[in-house]
Amino acid sequence: MRTIVQGMAACLLLVAAGAAGQENGGPTPYDKAMARGQKALAAEDWLTAAQSFGQALRLKPGDEEAAKAFKDAVKKIEVYNTRIDPLKGRTMERYGSTGSRDAIRDGLAWLVKKQAEDGHWTNTSPQPHAKDDLAPTAFALLALLADGSCEVEGEHREAVRKGIAWILARQQDGGSFGGATHYSEGLAALAVVEAFAMGGTDETFLAAQKSLNYVVEARCPKGGWVYQPSTQEGYGDVSVSGMMFQPLKQAQMVYLDFRYDTLLEFADWVESVTFESGEVPYRPGQAAPHHAPSLTAIGCLTRIYAGDTRETSPSLALGVDRVFAAKDQLRSHIYFLYYGTMLAFLVGGDSWRTWNEPMMEYLLSKQAKEGDDKGMIWDPEEYWAKLGYVDPVLFHSMAMLSLECCYRYVPHPMVPEEEPKEE
């Protein structure tokens, strides 16, 4: 059985005992967890503190003291410190390109200009079943969060505050944000989780926790997640599952509480549907033309995040090779560009260098340099744009996140950077 691997210490220990009291009158499990947390705080051991206060919060849900201590400890961990200067600048110099800084600045300014007064971004897609304002709002917020703005600080903090408030106002008792599809639900959950981790309010913390409960419960019994939130029948599909997996992975990184086995089980499911060739289908057993490099990129990302390596998994190694061999398609498929960029940065080395240059060249060539839409990145000839499933805000946000990729998340600790090839 694979183990979840991440750049921090062991995962949050979950406590089976739910009672906060003991008949013998001694320290309760809650008391012990709080004491461990306070001791860890004094030693500036932020990881242990987050684990301990998280245990206390699980034992006594809603406890204000435990909730505040947990959030304070998570802030100290600084999972997203690469998004803040000076580390952001150094990271961009090493992994990205200083030439993309102006493009990112202008692109974020365009996004903020397109935000409605109540905090949302409007989906202008002509496809009726794709018209859901939750998806573009969440994607736009992720682009702003990736650049270092959050609800309380950063150049675009007001836009983030309004956008998160709009999403939180939609949340239902079961944790859903009322999205038309699970694409929207996964994106919204990811935005709220990241907003919390970057210094969110108490309301954001509670909403993040509720959204994780929904994501876990919405999974199909046979594996993965399905497109429509109204059903859990049959098998999930890899495409929408990729969106629902991401908030769980980021929540794990900041010690939010959910059933971590969900990550392992999903990665096992992805491995089980992967063909020997390394290709990943849309749904189990489907043959071409349902294979797409974007799906293979999603599958590879999932498995690497769960601890698989190319050295120990032949199908993963073949899948990664297939993604990079298809890099010419990044100019015609925005989802492939988005997921492929994340995978290339995760793998690092030559894979990143040979991917990053054509990715930036393409996106910068599609950015408006003047006029009312200065900063917008949009390609109406892209596959999904022509079909009417992707509107300018969605396309632009994925482009922004791809340009920001080198500082959005820290490099994965279990993927050593490849050495440059000798000339």
Structural features, described:
The protein is mainly α and 423 residues long. Among the domains are: 9-77, no CATH class; 114-257, Glycosyltransferase (Alpha/alpha barrel). Helix content is 54%, strand content 0%. It contains 18 helices and no strands. It starts with 28 loop residues before the first helix and ends in a 15-residue tail after the last helix.
Which CATH architecture of the domain at 114-257 would you pick?
Answer: Alpha/alpha barrel
The biggest beta sheet is recorded as:
none
CATH fold-level name of the domain at 114-257:
Glycosyltransferase
- Summarize the amount of helix as a percent range: 40-55%
Number of helices: 18
Give the H and E element order: HHHHHHHHHHHHHHHHHH
Q: Class of the domain at 114-257, according to the CATH hierarchy?
A: Mainly Alpha
State the secondary-structure class. Answer: mainly alpha
Low-confidence stretches: 3-23, 413-423
Gross geometry: globular
Instruction: Say how many strands there are.
Output: 0
Distance between the termini: 40 Å
Provide the β-strand percentage band. Answer: under 5%
Radius of gyration: 21 Å
Mean pLDDT across the residues is 86
